[in-house]
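Entry for the shared binder. Reason: the reviewer on the internal report wants the predicted structure included alongside the sequence.
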Amino acid sequence: MPAITSLSPTKLTAGSATFTLTISGSGFTSASIVAVGGTAEATTYVSATQLTAAIPASQCTSGAMRPVVVATGTSSSTPISLEIDNPSPVIAAMVST
């Protein structure tokens, strides 16, 4: 049964470009698939303890906690959250009245 111990990165800012998510854990095989927010992503098997997944920018459009799950056959890991933060507000100008 696959198990996730960590993600890298663990969080990012909404509006980020496509990125590679590294998943560390155990029980991974070449048939393992990474799903983020319920969507299966292109997954690369690195080893029995590491996978990478290409996460498209469309998964990072707004702040949320996205569950990451690894599925191998009929077994799935316990979800771990990927934190997507909304960007900090920026003051563009100040007008005195």
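Summary line for the report: The first strand starts at residue 3 and ends at 8.
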